[in-house]
Amino acid sequence: MVARAVPVQAGSTSSAMAVPHGPASVSTARRRLRNDLGDRSIPDAVIDDAVLILSELLSNSCRHARPLQAEDPEPGDRPGRSAERRPHVADDGAEIGTVLVSWRMRGDGLLTLEVTDGGATTRPVPASPSVSAHGGRGLSIVGKLAKDWGVRHAPGQVTVWAELPAFEQVRGGGERRSA
């Protein structure tokens, strides 16, 4: 599996990486986030919450959403004409693509985590699973750990984000909102 660093502005307190759209990417992103936040002397309890939140967001993306689509020009397209957006497809017919994972320390002490993918047929919302259900609790967990979280839409992509205080451990019961 290959994770690709995405350039960020010099002097920035942010990090971004494009990871393959698939469950194996979750451990790669978690490890990089844990190392990066540890290097910034973020308290372990905050790091643990941030890693869990990122795991939930990226797992949901890989399970429910499409990858970001690369722009491939059709054969014979004229230069300067917009290319049609189509997914890459492997020999076995599986869709290949990436998901963008990023985090940044804001000046106000909030840590913002984001996962950007190609969207899904439904909007990300917390579920109300039964006690015996094997899944469906991820966004509820995010809502309990994060100060705030939400969903941002752009053409061809959806970003689910969460923010939490980086230097104080406050269990928020965050509100979900769109940006």
UniProtKB/TrEMBL annotation:
InterPro entries reported in the protein's UniProt record: Anti-sigma-factor_SerPK, HATPase_C_sf
Annotated region (Disordered), positions in chain: 1-27, 65-91
Molecular-function GO terms, alphabetical: protein serine/threonine kinase activity
Biased composition (Basic and acidic residues): 75-91
Protein name according to UniProt: Anti-sigma regulatory factor
